[in-house]
Amino acid sequence: MSGQTVTIILDKIYNKSVPKPTSLRPGYDIEYSKAYCHIYSIEQIEKMVEMEKIYDNLSIIRSFETPQQWAIRVKATLQTLIAEGYRSFYHVFCLFGSFGQGVTKTCYNHWAGRELPISYHRPSVHKSQMAICFKCWKLVKITEVKPRKEYFDGWRRWGYEIKSEDLMKDHWDNSCFKAEIATIAKNTIPSAPNFEPACISPARQKMISPTSYQSSNCGSNTSEIFISSLYAKQNNLLPSINYLNRPVLKIDDGTEITIV
Ligand SMILES: [Zn+2]
């Protein structure tokens, strides 16, 4: 399931087999996502709900908190989750701010001998409409987008769709990159690479290379990046311990980041 994204498709015929979503945010509606991703087995549903709940619990902005305080509180945990490869269907490119609590309905399953989830509703979208971007780690306001008219070749008909990236497009085009530059400019530690575990883009890797080094391990696809423990501490990176008893972070493409 990891890496899969949900596209909202609005089409009279299609929405008879896949329910019309309750929200125009891709991945928000679990019933829609389940049908879209063909998740039918109890084990798959349980796994999916478990992961979505972890992200959703982090997404809840508490009543006494400002979005800024929320972002500071959850950032390190969020970075660790992404670095370890745990992905959500809804929080794909950002963590959307939520309000309230998720609701899980369970039913006793005789075969499994325990209560299993049969449905799950996320917490509500927070009225501030704020989110934490996984690329620049800044707070972003998510404005609703209109579904795009698309021609579906397979069906040979027109329909409407919204993809997860559509909600981020405005931010990516206008302020995401600028925010990254601002972060680098503010960085006064000469030896500190600008490390973002969620998006090591080719451009990013270039930024890392002058102050750190990478080594490719022949015979495996795993590459390594080394960063200083001082930098890790300052940026709240939470590593786990590898087999050599050294702190290490692992990112999606298998790259290991060792803290030295
Ligand atoms: Zn951004």
Count of discrete domains: 2
Give the averaged pLDDT, no decimals.
78
The strand order across the widest sheet is 11-12-15-14-13
| Straight-line N-to-C gap | 33 Å
* Strand residues, percent: 15-25%
Helix content: 25-40%
Number of strands: 15
Residue ranges: pLDDT <50 for 5 or more in a row?
Answer: 188-228
Order of helices and strands: EHHHHEEEEEEEEEHHEEHEEE
Shape estimate: globular
Main sheet summary: 5 strands, mixed
Bound molecules: zinc ion
Question: Whole-number radius of gyration?
Answer: 20 Å
SS element count, helices: 7
Characterise the protein shown here.
- The chain contains 7 helices and 15 strands.
- Helices cover 30% and strands 23% of the residues.
- It has 2 domains: 8-163, no CATH class; 175-259, no CATH class.
- The radius of gyration is 20 Å and the shape is globular.
- The model is unreliable at 188-228 (pLDDT under 50).
- With 260 residues, it is of the alpha+beta class.
- The strands form 5 sheets. A 5-stranded mixed β-sheet has the order 11-12-15-14-13.
- Bound molecules: zinc ion.
- The site of zinc ion has 7 residues, from helix 5.
